[in-house]
Design goal:
single chain; 74 residues; mainly alpha; binds zinc ion
Amino acid sequence: MPKHTCHWPGCEKDVPPAMWGCKAHWFKLPKHLRAEIWRTYVPGQEITKTPSTAYLTAARDVQDWIRAQSEPTL
Ligand SMILES: [Zn+2]
């Protein structure tokens, strides 16, 4: 089994395959993004490795959001 780690950039924590990331980082995400991940998540996608386009879009939105948070405020 390949290791499945938190999707938060730089976080190496092991998480169950069905989870997006570790608890600490998951709950840092705004509610609407978490809802979007759940809405588009298809059980078993981590086994088939074929997440829906909607899920990939949601996952990308999350990464965009994280990047926006970590940008230095000038
Ligand atoms: Zn994490």
